[in-house]
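Quiz preparation item.
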């Protein structure tokens, strides 16, 4: 089930009974791009041990607890502003076993008005190996520590064998001197008033976990309401292929 829901305040960011759907944009292509080894998510969602930034009114956005091989994980985030308030966030998700299935989930407190140019930290298919997903996020704040002004993610790639591996960026072109420019392992984007005020990382607690939902913290009051912090909900990955037993000859 897709969640776009408020979360009652608690140390573990537990979820309340209130659940409601969000506007969901689905991107498909003509032919499915499946992989040699399917993976699945196991266990219940667990929160990142920290949040990056500062707590506010929390909303969970994503698909944290699906129960089939048709499962999604977080591939990136974008943010837009109105009147200097980061009031809009988009969470990009992708099917673990079929890259043609993508969902773009949004949370907005912008009073329905036009928004500014977006910032984005994502593992785009054009810049990274397929099946690259978020395992950590951090934010950059303004000098007053009241508004998110930058996003950065770290992640992992699911290998052909259905295992967790490091993210690999693709070559994006050449810079001066003939050196090749490769997409960074931890993509980030920020606004001028970030001023390098980066906060601690919020990361999945397990080394074999990926984020299946994002917990967004917004300030209270009238719209536009600013994003103040971000946490994650994570689940464990495992291959659907049976393990190899014994010694091959």
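Solution:
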């Amino acid at each position: 089930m897709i969640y776009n829901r408020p979360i009652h305040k608690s140390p573990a960011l537990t979820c309340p009974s209130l659940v409601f759907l969000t506007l969901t944009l689905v991107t498909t292509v003509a032919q499915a791009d499946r992989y040699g080894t399917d993976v699945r998510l196991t266990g219940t969602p667990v929160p990142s041990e920290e949040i990056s930034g500062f707590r506010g009114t929390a909303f969970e956005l994503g698909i944290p607890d699906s129960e089939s091989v048709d499962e999604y994980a977080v591939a990136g985030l974008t943010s837009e502003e109105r009147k200097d308030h980061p009031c809009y966030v988009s969470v990009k998700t992708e099917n673990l076993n079929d890259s043609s299935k993508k969902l773009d989930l949004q949370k907005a407190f912008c009073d329905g008005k036009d928004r500014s140019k977006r910032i984005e930290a994502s593992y785009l298919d054009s810049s990274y190996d397929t099946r690259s997903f978020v395992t950590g996020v951090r934010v950059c704040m303004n000098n007053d520590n009241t508004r998110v002004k930058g996003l950065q993610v770290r992640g992992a790639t699911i290998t052909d064998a259905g295992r967790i591996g490091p993210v690999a960026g693709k070559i994006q072109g050449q810079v001066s001197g003939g050196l090749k420019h490769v997409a960074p392992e931890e993509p980030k984007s920020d606004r001028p008033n970030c001023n390098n005020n980066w906060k601690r990382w919020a990361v999945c607690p397990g080394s074999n976990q990926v984020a299946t939902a994002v917990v967004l913290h917004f300030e209270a009051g009238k719209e536009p309401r600013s994003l103040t912090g971000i946490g994650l909900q994570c689940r464990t990955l495992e291959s659907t292929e049976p393990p190899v037993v014994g010694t091959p000859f």
